[in-house]
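hey so u asked for the seq, here:
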Amino acid sequence: MTPEEALAIYHAGPEVVVKALCELSNQVELLQKQVAELQKEVQRLKDQLAKNSRNSSKPPSSDGFNRPAPKSLRPQGKGKPGGQKGHPGSTLKMVDNPEHTIVYHVDQCQRCGHCLTNEAPSDVEKRQVFDIPAIQMEVSEHQAEIKPCSHCGHLNKATLPEQVKAPVQYGPRLKAIAVYLRQYQLLPYNRSRELLGDLFSTDLSEGTLTNITETCSEFLQEPLEQIRKQLEQAPVVNFDETGSSVDGKGQWLHAASSPNLISLRLINLL
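ran it, C-alpha cells below
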C-alpha cells in the first residue's frame, strides 16, 4: 500500500479505515501461520540431515560422505615422543656366526716399520654391518628329456612340474611379492611395477599383475570359505563396515571377525 492509497482510505471515513485494518490483520495472521509452518519444516529437515549412525538408529552405510569423523578410543598419552623409560628397545646386537668375515691385516709396525706379516695377532676389534644381500633375478630352466624307445619306437617325454606350464613365466616368490604389494601394502599398479622394476629389474605389465592377483584369489577361495564357516559357529562375532569413494562411486568394506578370524567383503553401491 502506497502513502497515497493509505491517505485515500483515511479520508474515506471510519468505516473504510476499519475494514482496511481488519483485512490487513487477517493477512498478517495468515502469513504468521505460514512462517511458523515453514520454520517447523526447515527444522525437521535440519534434524534429518544431522542424524547419523552415532546419534540415531541409522546404519553406518547410510552416513554417506557426510559421516562423522572417527573418534579414537585411546586415552591421551602422557609420555614424551620416542622410547619410554624401561622400554626394552631394539638396538642391533652382534651375532656369533656372521655370514661373511673380512679380515684387515697388519703388515708392518706403524711406528718403526718392522714387518709383522708372520706375527700372530694378539686380539681383534670386531664391527658388524647388517645389510640385505644383492638382489637379482635368477632364471631356472626346466628340461624334460625326450627319448625314443629302442624296442617299440615310442617317443617318451619326462613330466614337467605342474606349476611350470608356459615356455617362459614368473616364479612363485615374485608372484607372492607382487600380491603382497598390491593387496596388503595397497600400492597402485604403477607404483608396484616401479618397485618390482627397481628391485628385480623386471617389467611386469598391469595385465600380468592383475592375472597374478586373480590367480591368488582363486587359490584362496577354499580357505576363505572355511573361515566363514568357522565365523558362523563362533559364539561372538564383531561386525563393522568402512566406506570409501572409488571413481565417484560409494563402496563399503564389510568385516566379520572373532578373536582369531576375520572375513572381509567389498560391496559396490550403484
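The chain has a mean pLDDT of 87. The chain is about 35% helix and 10% strand.
lmk if thats what u needed
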